[in-house]
Amino acid sequence: MVVDMASNDLPRFKPDQPPAPSGAPPGPSAYPASGQSVRPTTGQPIPPTSVQPVQPTQPAQPPQPAQPVPPRRRTAGPSRPLDATPRRARTPSGTPATPAAAPAPAAPQMPPWATAAPPPYQPQAQPYAAAGYAAQPGYPAQPAAGYPAQTPQPAYAGYQGPPPTPPAPPRPPTAPKRRHPVRRFFVTLAILLVLAIAYPVGLGLWANGQINRLDVISTTVDTPGRTYLIAGSDQRGSGGVNDATEGARTDTIMLLHVAQNGRAYLVSIPRDTYVQIPGYSPNKINAAYAFGGPELLIQTVEQLTSMHIDHYVEVGFGSVTDLVDAVGGVELCLDMDVDDQKSHLKWTAGCHQADGTTALAFSRMRYSDPEGDIGRASRQRQVVSAVMKKAITPKNLLWPPTQIDLIKAGTGALAVDKDMNAVALARMLLDFRAATGPDGVTGTPTIASLDYEPGGIGSAVLLDADQSEKDFRAIENGTWEGNPTD
Predict the structure, then answer these.
(1) Predicted confidence (pLDDT) at residue 456 exceeds the cutoff of 50
(2) Residue 302 — pLDDT band, cuts 50, 70, 90?
């Protein structure tokens, strides 16, 4: 009995069906047929399935020819002749039967696409002669009917690099940025502050590198206040007045002093002032420059004034023209007509706008002036004061092209001591402006004689020894009010 293993129940029989008697064969309803499955719950036979197992397909083999059967050898019975033809291979008449020919193997079945005849051969069309190709022998120049014309292919030009990168897709629209006016204001203000600080610093450094310096220094004891010695040197043939004097002389000597009380003074010392020159016999003060240069001139002025010279500034008369032209000319005043042959000054009484050449002649003329050297010193102060007032104006100080022109002209005309930098020079210009302003005092020391003849040096200017000493002490203390004759 075969039990269905799909269920865990044991085989049972119906209770109303009595068991088969002992020794009797089981009926068809009691037991299933041999090899047949029964249901464990009911005991009924499970009908066999109609599905047969699939047998593997064997390839068809061609039939083999029949092989002759060897004759059987008899061991008993009447003898008869033996031959090689078997009994089954004989005809009813007893003659040997001709063996049937083996059937020919069946031809394999081929798909339709393999048995279809190929299309007739058609020659390929050649490119047109206009494309640069000639028809080959045996090929038509035009494409055959039914076939499209071939497009001529260009010659291979070598590797052209990677294909071009496709353009990036457009960015999605973004919301406009919110503007912050307060932030923009502070950013603009910061940029302006940086420029306002960086530009003057850079301009000052550049100007400091353009200054000509002299190896001179004062060795006397320091005195109160700030004192500058300004000398206008006249190298003969360099733009000044050409005369028979040899070497370089100082045609202008001015003492700029700022007292401790803040009062500024600009004192002119006549170039022909008779003084004692250290290491030499008494002579005109401008001879000290010819004998020993700026250093001897500093010692001579310190001996005359008993004041310590803090800084020395030398102005070349040949550059006065450039200074005046850099500020656009200056206004000068003179209350008499002048036609001086030596200085080439032609002037009509009154105030006129003067350019650089006229201003130079105006500051150098003395032979046509009744006051001589005193009048010339006054005009020199007028020219320098006019240049300073015109230069130190907002228009010229804040306009970069004018600033550069002034620095070039000023540094080309000036030579200073080695301890003076651009800051000290700018401070001196401010002090000079204060001295020539309404609160400043300008003038000359007290003069005893304008035509002093000591002998051997021509006519000289003699200072009043006692009164000039008082003048210099009052200048040092900031209490001098000038001379009535100035």
Answers:
(1) yes
(2) very high
- Domain layout of the chain by residue ranges: 210-477
**Nearest-5° Cα angle at 128, 127 to 134:** 80
Closest CA to 331 of 316, 346, 350: 350
Res 402: pLDDT:
75
- For 248, counting Cβ atoms within 10 Å of its Cβ (0-12 exposed, 13-18 middle, 19+ buried), the class is middle
Q: What superfamily would CATH give domain 210-477?
A: LCP protein (3.40.630.190)
The two tokens of residue 485 are 């004759």
Structure tokens at 175: 């919301």
CB 374 within 8 A of CB 450: yes
Closest CA to 252 of 296, 315, 329, 309: 315
What token pair was written down for 173?
């629209």
CA distance 216 to 234: 19
> If DSSP states are collapsed to H, E and C, what string results for the chain?
CEECCCCCCCCCCCCCCCCCCCCCCCCCCCCCCCCCEECCCCCCECCCCCCCCCCCCCCCCCCCCCCCCCCCCCCCCCCCCCCCCCHHHECCCCCECCCCCCCCCCCCCCCHHHHCCCCCCCCCCCCCHHHCCCCCCCCCCCCCCCCCCCCCCCCCCCCCCCCCCCCCCCCCCCCCCCCCHHHHHHHHHHHHHHHHHHHHHHHHHHHHHHCEEECCCCCCCCCCCEEEEEEEEEECCCCCCCCCCCCEEEEEEEEEEECCCCCEEEEECCCCEEECCCCCCCEECCHHHHHHHHHHHHHHHHHHHCCCCCEEEEEEHHHHHHHHHHCCCEEEEECCCEEECCCCEEECCEEEEECHHHHHHHHHCCCCCCCCHHHHHHHHHHHHHHHHHHHCCHHHHHCHHHHHHHHHHHHHHEEEECCCCHHHHHHHHHHHHHHCCCCCEEECCCEEEEEECCCCCCCEEEECHHHHHHHHHHHHHCCCCCCCCC
In 3D, which of 385, 414, 431, 389 has the Cα closest to residue 227? Answer: 431
Best-predicted range by mean pLDDT (96-100, 172-176, 231-235, 265-269): 265-269
